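#help-structures
NK: newbie question, is this the right format to request a structure? protein is Integrase
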Amino acid sequence: MMKAWEFIKFAEEKILKKKWSPDAVVGIAKRKEQFEYIPSTKTLYNWIDEGKLTIVNMDLEMKLRRSTKGKKFSKHNKVHGMSIEERPKSIETREEFGHWR
């Protein structure tokens, strides 16, 4: 994190004063190539979550608006055929092919 000190100052200014997203800050920094070390967007979010920067989640507008909804799983039930008791009586005679046992 010490290697990224200049970038951190840049990121804090853009996020706090200009309301940029962390992803936008990283993207601009990579495009301009003005810093020795530029962390990934995920790393920047991790630093914010861990409290290593003066930026907090309240400063990130999109992160506050997003809701983390759990995944809904549908219950997969196997559709079974008819029960042995419900079969027609003609099957019991075993005269037709396929009804042998």
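mod (FA): yep, format's fine, and the tokens are attached above. The two ends are 74 Å apart (CA to CA).
NK: thank you!
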